[in-house]
Structure to design on (326 residues):
């Protein structure tokens, strides 16, 4: 395999522009799938509802860019039915054992990340950051890593890179080993924490999903993993969330488990909430410089109009933007 340092690198620069980002508003109710409804009823029948499965750490990266009508973000179809991110989501996945291994590191320290993410466990916070970067590279080929604190790998579309991504996905090659071989370190400074969403207590498999935002480094371009890439593209966030009951996206993907399904049926509450947040912003600088306090959010099981549903309220954090040059 070629040394990744043989690939050109680029300087990452922030795009400037007007910074305005209105607050999202409104309560959401999600209908349960048949599997979720069965689990929810069984859980409700328990005398002690405080008992639930431990949440496994997961992470997802929300890539953004400016489009004709506000921000666009890159969404993918999840081939795994039990994915913590739903059928349609941003690149991401669950922590793997290797994500706890030592790795070259640029950016905030693990302890600082724990503070940013509202974690008492520094190890889990660190693994969430590594998972976000690994899953991003594995799934869509965007590599947030570089040989120094200013540079990132520029070109990641070579066939050799795809072969490495396939090997990482198949557990034939370790992501950290891949970085070490190329003299690369993870650029954690390129990630912006957005929030944490936990799976409801009644679920048989629960996840604590950490959402991060970033931009695709100059010279790189998202490209789906050959063996698992069913669908993925940049979508205009504002247009997509303007009608969450629309089945247009599910019909476009045109798979058995997406046809005729609305956005609310294809996405988890956390994913939709983050997408709503992206839709409120006009520029990348507005979204990335918005000051947020990371809260742990978990949809609540409620009964509405005789039907079990998941309810949540989108975060209403205050909008604050940094002054230019600060």
């Amino acid at each position: 395999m070629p040394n990744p340092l043989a690939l050109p690198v680029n300087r990452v620069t922030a795009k400037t522009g007007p910074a305005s980002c209105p607050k999202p508003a409104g309560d959401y109710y999600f209908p349960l799938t048949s599997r979720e409804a069965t689990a929810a009823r069984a859980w409700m029948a328990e005398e002690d509802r405080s008992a639930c499965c431990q949440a496994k750490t997961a992470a997802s990266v929300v890539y953004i860019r400016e489009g004709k009508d506000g921000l666009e973000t890159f969404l993918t179809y999840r081939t795994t039915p039990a994915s913590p991110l739903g059928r349609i989501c941003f690149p991401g996945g669950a922590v793997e054992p290797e994500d706890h291994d030592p790795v070259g590191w640029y950016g905030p320290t693990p302890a600082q990340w724990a503070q940013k993410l509202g974690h008492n466990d520094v190890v889990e916070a660190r693994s969430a950051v590594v998972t976000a970067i690994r899953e991003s590279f594995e799934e869509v080929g965007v590599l947030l890593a570089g040989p120094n604190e200013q540079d990132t790998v520029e070109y990641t579309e070579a066939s050799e890179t795809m072969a490495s991504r396939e090997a990482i996905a198949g557990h034939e090659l370790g992501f950290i080993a891949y970085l070490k071989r190329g003299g690369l370190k993870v650029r954690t400074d390129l990630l912006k924490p957005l929030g944490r969403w936990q799976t409801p207590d009644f679920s048989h498999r629960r996840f604590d999903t950490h959402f991060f935002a970033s931009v695709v480094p100059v010279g790189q371009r998202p490209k789906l993993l050959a063996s698992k890439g069913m669908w993925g593209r940049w979508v205009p966030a504002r247009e997509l969330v303007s009608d969450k009951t629309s089945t247009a996206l599910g019909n476009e993907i045109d798979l058995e488990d997406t046809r005729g399904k609305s956005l609310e049926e294809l996405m988890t509450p956390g994913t939709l909430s983050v997408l709503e947040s992206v839709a409120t912003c006009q520029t990348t600088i507005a979204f990335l410089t918005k000051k947020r306090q990371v809260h742990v959010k978990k949809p609540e099981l409620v009964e509405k109009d005789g039907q079990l549903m998941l309810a949540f309220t989108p975060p209403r954090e205050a909008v604050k933007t940094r002054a230019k040059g600060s």
